[in-house]
Amino acid sequence: MDYNQNEQNNRYVSSNRPTDPNMPNYPQTPDWGTPPSSGQNANSTFPLISMILGIASIVMCCTGVLSIPLASISIILAVLSTRKGKSMSGMSIAGICTSIFGMFFGLIFLIYMIFCVALVEVPELRSTMDPLYEQAYGMTFEEYMEYMGTPLD
Fold it and tell me: What's the rounded Cα separation, in Å, for the pair 51 and 94?
């Protein structure tokens, strides 16, 4: 088998073969090219981290507290990735969109949790829930909480 016959079609054949006719014609090591420069990877790091943090903020939106900082950091990284006058990449836009989504639902959940704590702590709010609990469970809110094992003082 002659290793030179498909040299044009073989992408693993190096173009720097020896030209000495007395040397055996062994296959050469592949010419893999030069590795990408570190600047190329640095341009895609911030958008990638932004997108990952945006997705994490959606996952953590049920905690309320964790999704808001994750989304904020994600938006900051997406904006910093366009600092050099370049247009936003798709990952930056995805990071901003997922961050806004995660922050919005994290804020809604946080407001809901504050309302739930206020409902238990403020007696005036408890009395507003009595008609709803009477209709749904046949007992007042305080009776329902005692029934569930969390008596209100």
Answer: 6
- Domain residue ranges in the chain: 44-109, 122-153
Global confidence as pTM: 0.59
Q: Rounded to the nearest 10 degrees, how much is the dihedral formed by the CA atoms of 57, 59, 60, 62? A: 130
> Are 55 and 74 contacting, i.e. CB atoms less than 8 angstroms apart?
no
Residues whose CB falls within 8 Å of the CB of residue 126, separated by 6 or more in sequence, listed in order: 119, 120, 141, 142, 152
pLDDT tens for 116-141 read 888 878 888 778 888 888 998 898 88
* Alpha carbon separation from 51 to 60, 81, 87, 103 (Å, rounded): 14, 12, 16, 14
